[in-house]
From TrEMBL, chain A:
It is an enzyme of class 1 (oxidoreductase). The keyword Chaperone does not apply. It comes from Desulforhabdus amnigena. It comes from the Bacteria. Residues 11-41, 60-92 form the 4Fe-4S ferredoxin-type domain. This is Glycolate oxidase iron-sulfur subunit.
TrEMBL record, chain B:
Belongs to the FAD-binding oxidoreductase/transferase type 4 family. Keywords: FAD, Flavoprotein, Oxidoreductase. This is FAD-binding protein. It holds the Pfam family FAD_binding_4. It comes from Desulforhabdus amnigena. PROSITE patterns: FAD_PCMH.
Length: 433, 460
């Protein structure tokens, strides 16, 4: 193991933010991981204390801290509730990068991030093969949710996962450049990996909606992942590469807003691109900041810029009961909770009903789900219970990653509840307009 | 150090996953919410049943292993810092509400039940458990009992002590001791609960707590009285009580706190006011109206510039949002926050507030003051950066001065945060040598090896 003094020096970068934590413990009340385990190292206060310990050179080996740091959904619930305003996510993400750079990326992650994710074309091709051959390895389990499970013993365990789409979104719509219509607005659309590869129907619904409202759309040929999987594992190299790749794609093209239908992408582009991008030239950084400024969740765009309003409570026959799950990255990170509900309520065929703890994390957390599946699904089960208790037959949300997790949970429990994106719900209503 | 054989014994009782030995895990149990140096325990144990808890206590005693119980670790006096190392025993897996009795108005709980969850469960049955420490969203009932925690409603409803009807606890030998009962009246035997409440884990380990419940008041009304003079505001506190009205809550906020809260949460506080009183009366709706009107007129007579009476629940929530934001708002200004707990007889609040202003000037420190003025319990909050050694010395000196003043005014070292490690050295100042010796004899009789939370309250 290398010199711990050096690591402590590297961590000085976060020291000023670390000392802000007054160890009050209030984060315990909202941390979904702590709620399952009751372990102090699983809650923000404990992790911050551990980082402080590293900084004070109290440990012989940083991997213990690295492990505990990875047991976190990066859901931001703690930060949203912290009396002291500790920038928990910034600290965790930065510290993960510092420690990972110091001890090195695991060989598996190296392959996934450096050899696949950071080369979007190769990544696309790999997953397209995957989509063709997935039938050999997996079998469908739930027609309503479109989930499958492994046929053989597999590293995926007993997950019920949403299958890869037969045709990814970027094949259906390789690029797009339509002029602003009646709205006078033009947006760039950032697809995001999960929508592209698993739920292209969300992308299609978004495009239909934008077209309906006379919004011009630009989709560049060259886009990749927003980079959060790499960043949250501490791989800033890949993260930076992906930002540059995307920057090239969106280029200096003129558009009013950058819109996404993925809560995680929105918060990553808006909050993490400008603050966590290193090694960019000042010019590039300025462009990243300008792009971040313009970035919006699609329901926010529809409500705030296009003027979508909830439908008046007119009776139009049978209504389907629908509820909504707040993705952490939308509500806690960006404070967007009303707009997606408005968009859903704009479809008169549905009746909206709040579920209990609508803004409680679903437990997905990206790589957290891969690394700590048991914990992730224990958290997900509470979400499932709340969805089922609401008595709704559809649950909507605004993040495709949440959709994967919720589908898994509902499918495993054998519940007949559909999982949809808020924009799909809205797009359905356009047929009748 | 704890021998391998004992560790094996712990693992046999609890299973390996509930025995934390890794240094990173142990590190996360070396601190609490007090601004004190951390101390690493040798092992952390997480029992999930009473039986396990009792056995752990016994083994620790037999092997002379210091044992510190930990609820949520939110105490502000170092009560859960394992001063002598040894074992930290967690209660957060002992978190069942065993019974809520709506006929006889009591509840039986395990010590790890989170206060706010308990209050909500009780409320769902139309009943009321008033103690509401600011930390209630995470603090445990065991921790509340051990600290005799109070809250915003202390003035009218008292503190945790006033709701403990009975206790079952493990003595240091791991034998169960029962005191009190489910009856409202009970004079059987020594009043051991009176000794155990506030004992900060130094005399025994709570296993079950019987708590008194009361009917939920049917009416509430809140108001904000705005003053251009701190002294007038603080004199109003005593005046209200002197008029034989006991509000449920009577909170104070100084100008610095008002401005900070307003900056932070924009609830519409008058930033030019010298001080605010936030007052809530509750009870039967008719009585509430009468009391609210009386309080309003007293405030006017005492020279309040303005009084805002909350017209509905939303406005009332706003008043309390402002108060609850106080610590958060102050905490955001500087890295280190020292939330003190000076408490004086109500009539001495004006003098105490004046003294705090003087201390802030003398030591050149930023101190925001807010708190439960109705019961004389102020929270002067010092904003600093612990890393600035020179300033930190001044902070320590200011804390000494604050306690001297509070004691000089006939007050006490702690209204609700306990003594723990943080204040044990002041104890003699408030009490006497004899009191400490007497307390130490009790401790020695009940815990001859001194393994239960050593070094707390009465020192060593
Ligand atoms: C933001 C904030 C606001 C606060 N507001 C208030 C307030 O308004 N009023 C107030 O009174 N306090 C307040 N506090 C202080 C603190 O929350 C209380 O002292 C609370 O009662 C501690 O509960 P806990 O579960 O965290 O106990 P811990 O901190 O874990 O333990 C406190 C003490 O109790 C002992 N203990 C815990 N469980 C047991 C058991 N089962 N048997 C025996 N001993 C046990 C511990 O050994 C320790 O000595 C506040 C703290 C914070 C951080
Ligand atoms: S709530 Fe904030 S200040 Fe309090 S312990 Fe958690 S991170 Fe620290
Ligand atoms: S980000 Fe979420 S999971 Fe991580 S510590 Fe905070 S609340 Fe817990
Ligand atoms: S946030 Fe998730 S779905 Fe969106 S682009 Fe990034 S990895 Fe893909």
């Amino acid at each position: 193991m290398q010199d711990m003094k050096k690591l402590a020096q590297l961590l000085k970068e976060v020291e000023d933010q670390l000392v802000v934590c007054m160890r009050c413990g209030m984060c315990q009340s909202v941390c979904p991981v702590f709620a399952e385990t009751g372990r102090e190292s699983d809650v923000a206060r404990g992790k911050l204390a551990l980082l402080d310990g590293l900084l004070q050179e109290m440990f012989k080996d940083p991997t213990g801290v690295q492990d505990r740091l990875s047991r976190c959904l990066l859901c931001g619930s703690c930060a949203a509730n912290c009396p002291s305003g500790v920038k928990v996510l910034d600290i965790f993400i930065k510290a993960r990068a510092i420690i990972t750079n110091y001890v090195g990326l695991s060989p598996l992650k190296k392959i996934i991030f450096r050899k696949m994710l950071s080369q979007p074309e190769l990544f696309d091709r790999l997953l397209e093969w995957g989509s063709k051959f997935q039938g050999i390895f997996v079998k469908p389990v739930d027609d309503l949710l479109g989930t499958s499970c492994a046929r053989f013993v597999s590293p995926l365990g007993d997950r019920h996962f949403s299958s890869l789409a037969p045709e990814p979104f970027h094949r259906m719509v390789p690029s797009l450049d339509t002029p602003a219509g009646a709205s006078g607005l033009k947006v760039a659309f950032f697809t995001g990996c999960v929508i592209d590869k698993v739920f292209p129907r969300i992308g299609t619904a978004a495009l239909r909606t934008l077209k309906h409202h006379g919004v011009g759309v630009f989709i560049p040929k060259e886009v990749g992942c927003c980079g959060i999987p790499a960043l949250s594992s501490g791989d800033t190299d890949t993260f930076n590469k992906l930002i540059l790749h995307n920057l090239k794609g969106f280029g200096s093209r003129n558009f009013d807003y950058l819109v996404t239908a993925c809560a995680t992408c929105t918060s990553t582009i808006k909050k993490l691109w400008p603050t966590m991008a290193e090694e960019l030239t000042p010019g590039e950084l300025d462009r990243v900041k300008a792009l971040a400024e313009k970035t919006m969740d699609i329901s926010q765009f529809l409500v705030e810029k296009v003027g979508v309003k909830p439908e008046a409570a007119g009776e139009t026959g049978e209504k389907t009961l629908i509820t909504y799950h707040d993705p952490c990255h939308l509500k806690k990170s960006l404070g967007i909770a009303v707009q997606p509900r408005t968009v859903i309520q704009a479809n008169p065929s549905y009746r909206f009903k709040e579920m209990k703890e609508a803004d409680k994390c679903c437990g997905c957390g990206g790589s957290f789900n891969l690394q700590y599946y048991d914990l992730s699904s224990a958290i997900g089960k509470h979400k499932r219970d709340n969805i089922v208790d609401s008595g709704c037959s559809v649950v909507a949300t605004s993040c495709p990653a949440c959709m994967l997790q919720i589908s898994d949970m509902l499918s495993q429990a054998g519940d007949r509840v559909e999982v949809k994106h808020a924009i799909e719900i809205y797009a359905e209503s356009l047929d009748k307009k | 150090m704890i021998s391998q054989a004992v560790i094996k014994e712990f693992e046999r009782i609890l299973g390996k996953e509930k025995v934390f030995l890794d240094e990173t895990d142990r590190h996360t149990y070396s601190y609490d919410a007090a601004v004190l140096e951390p101390v690493l325990p040798s092992v952390v144990l997480r029992p999930t049943s009473s039986e396990e808890l009792g056995r752990l206590v016994r083994i620790c005693n037999e092997n002379s292993i210091p044992l510190t119980v930990r609820g949520a670790g939110t105490n502000l006096s170092g009560g859960t810092i394992p001063k002598k190392g040894g074992a930290v025993v967690l209660t957060n897996a002992l978190n069942k509400i065993l019974e809520i009795n709506t006929e006889d108005l009591y509840a039986i709980v395990q010590p790890g039940v989170v206060t706010a969850k308990f209050a909500a469960a009780v409320e769902a049955k139309g009943l009321f458990y008033p103690p509401d420490p600011g930390s209630q969203a995470v603090s445990t009932l065991g921790g509340n009992v051990a600290e005799n925690a109070g809250g915003l409603r202390g003035l009218k409803y008292g503190v945790t002590r006033d709701y403990v009807m009975g206790l079952e606890f493990f003595d240091v030998n791991g034998e169960i001791v029962k005191t009190g009962s489910r009856t409202v009246k009970c004079v059987t035997g020594y009043n051991l609960a009176a000794l155990m409440v506030g004992s900060e884990g130094t005399l025994g380990v709570f296993d079950k707590i019987i708590l008194k419940l009361i009917p939920m008041p049917t009416g509430r009304k809140a108001m904000m009285a705005i003053f251009d003079n701190v002294i007038k505001a603080s004199e109003t506190v005593a005046a209200i009580i002197a008029h034989r009205i006991v509000p449920a809550t009577l909170e104070f906020m100084d100008n610095f706190t008002i401005r900070t809260v307003e900056d932070y949460s924009r609830v519409g506080l008058p930033t030019d006011a010298a001080a605010l009183l936030l007052i809530e009366v509750d009870g039967h709706p008719a009585q509430v109206e009468e009391d609210a009107a009386k309080v309003e007129s007293i405030c006017r007579e005492m020279g309040a510039m303005k009084i805002r009476v909350a017209q509905d629940a939303a406005e009332r929530d706003k008043v309390w949002e402002a108060r609850r934001a106080a610590l958060s708002a102050l905490a955001k200004l500087k890295p280190t926050v020292v939330l003190e707990d000076a408490t004086v007889p109500r009539s001495k609040i004006p003098a105490m507030i004046q003294a705090l202003e003087e201390i802030s000037r003398r030591f050149n420190l930023t101190i925001g003051t807010f708190g439960h003025a109705g019961d004389g319990n102020l929270h002067p909050t010092i904003l600093t950066d612990k890393r600035n050694k020179e300033e930190w010395h001044r902070v320590e000196a200011a804390i000494d001065a604050i306690f001297d003043k509070a004691l000089g005014l006939g007050g006490t070292l702690s209204g609700e945060h306990g003594i723990g490690m943080a204040k044990s050295r002041y104890l003699e100042k408030e009490t006497s040598k004899g009191t400490i010796l007497f307390s130490r004899r009790i401790k020695a009789a009940l815990d001859p090896k001194g393994i239960l939370n050593p070094g707390k309250i009465i020192g060593e």
